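Cross-check.
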Amino acid sequence: MKKIRKYILPIITLFAFIPNLFADVTLPKILGHNMVLQQNKQVAIWGTAAPKEKISVSFAGQNKTTIADNTGKWSINLNPMKASFSAREMIIKGKNTIVLKNILVGEVWLCSGQSNMEFALRKYSKYDSLAKGKRPPVNDLKTANNPNIRIFLDRRKYMSPSPEHLGWDEAIGRSLVDFSAVGYYFAKDLYTKLNVPIGIISAAVPGSRIEPWIQSEKLQIEPKLKNGKILDKLSNDDGDAGKFYDTMIQPLIPFTLKGFLWYQGESNCFLGENIRYAYKLKTLIESWRNDWQDKKMPFYLVQIAPYNYSASKDRPLSSETLPEFWESQSLVLKLKNTALISITDLVESTTELHPVNKWEIGKRLSLLATNKTYNQTNVIYSGPVYQNMKIVNNTIEVTFSNTGSGLASRDEKPLTHFTIAGTDGKFVPAKAEIKDNKVIISSTKVQHPYNVRFGWNEAAQSNFINNEGLPAVPFRTDNPWKKLFK
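Predicted model, tokenized:
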């Protein structure tokens, strides 16, 4: 018996360290029935199998083969394809055969962030009892029938491979219950503009800071300002770095996408962050683009809504904490293929952290993508954005981009929430008039004006818009970070 054990134990030990030579071909959960594949880009298909196993992938007339590496990992890139409404099958063969059904080709976007992005359509389930303005124009939970829009809800505890290859759903009725309202309404509006299948992936966690969405080692940097000053390491801010990246973002890589939608920041704003958040957001954008091996991938964000952060009992925040955070969100627009939408007009009460009309937020993101990504430049996606200022006698003349068909007042009353200051930096309420598609700002209390601020208060909801009805983006001409951020 001792001799038998002498030989058996080493054999058992040996097989414990040898990869399973008879492993079935396995796919990540993001690859499954009902998915949408990105048009006009190489499409990544990947998974695991037995080491050195031959794998073939067949789809839309393409037949590709590869050999799994020594660890059993394999990947294949399908050639770029045109959009297609044809529900086709993908066949993956190794020792076993997987058939994925009902696959379309179109545009695929990933939306991520915290509770305002996670905000599910089920919150409109009591549609009839909701007050007007708090309910979408159509009860999509009852009436949605969008088989050409496909949704994938990234649940961090359920991202392991699915033997049934489930995860993607058609955007029809009850399948939308737990899905992101912003993501769905983005896809719904984009579909009407592009008329191609749309795939939307939602990966959002209520209350999450930005740090968990960034790979932990990517936060081990000390940002350097243009004046040579070095900030503390971003990782010093803690925040469970990498927690959701590891469980929700990494399992999606390298699923082929068109771009990213980001709606997050409230948790970091409560910490009083400004320039540090800008560097974290820059790190997230650059690292995600690097993960998907595309430095030009569009990254569009929602500038968080007005809210009375100054009422927080945990930290000494002021009414300017939020405007400074808005400024930090805007700083990353220095990166190519980034843009944001403002939603200062979509809040009924500054005591409500979650604006309910997510359908309008999704639509504005769709307008943004339509203009910037799909080059329909006639589509207006933003209200006026500060461009330049010029001191003229005792006034300041401000010019804007994104003026659409012209500057306007929502209620036709004098423009609100403008302030002006001289060299002493003391800002006072100002008179603001639209003239020749510019805004002329002045105050009898400031004879020699030097700077202007607009909407520089957490509760500011101005009547300043463009003729398309989109709100002007808050700004200050004395921005201390714009020249330092790099």
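Confidence is low (pLDDT under 50) at residues 1-21. The first strand starts at residue 36 and ends at 38. Passed to J.P. for a second look.
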